[in-house]
């Protein structure tokens, strides 16, 4: 599978997902945040991670 075929498939899925939510970016964002909230995966806050690294530096 060529890279452009992979991208085409990714774009098709993205477009379908957006259409499922009425092409409303706020609805899409809300759905993604809700999925993230229910996910069992660890969410990393890079801003907090950078603050912690800076505080450890002499």
Topology, element by element:
Blueprint: H1 3-20, H2 25-38, H3 46-56
Q: Could you characterize what this model shows?
A:
- The chain has 3 helices and no strands.
- Helices cover 74% and strands 0% of the residues.
- It has one domain.
- By secondary structure, the protein is mainly α.
- The radius of gyration is 17 Å and the shape is elongated.
Give the key terms.
58 residues
Q: What percent strand?
A: under 5%
Kindly report the average pLDDT value. Answer: 90
The total count of helices amounts to 3
Give the N-terminus to C-terminus distance in angstroms.
50 Å
Give the tally of β-strands: 0
Main sheet specs:
none
Low-confidence stretches: none
**Given the helix and strand composition, which structural class is it?**
mainly alpha
Task: Report Rg.
Answer: 17 Å
Shape label? elongated
Helix content: over 70%
Our count of domains comes out at 1
Summarize the structure.
The chain is mainly alpha-helical and 58 residues long.
């Amino acid at each position: 599978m060529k890279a452009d075929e992979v991208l085409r498939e990714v774009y098709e899925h993205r477009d379908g997902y957006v259409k499922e939510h009425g092409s409303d970016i706020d609805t899409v964002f809300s759905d993604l945040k809700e999925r993230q909230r229910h996910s069992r995966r660890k969410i990393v806050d890079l801003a907090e991670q950078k603050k912690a690294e800076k505080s450890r530096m002499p």
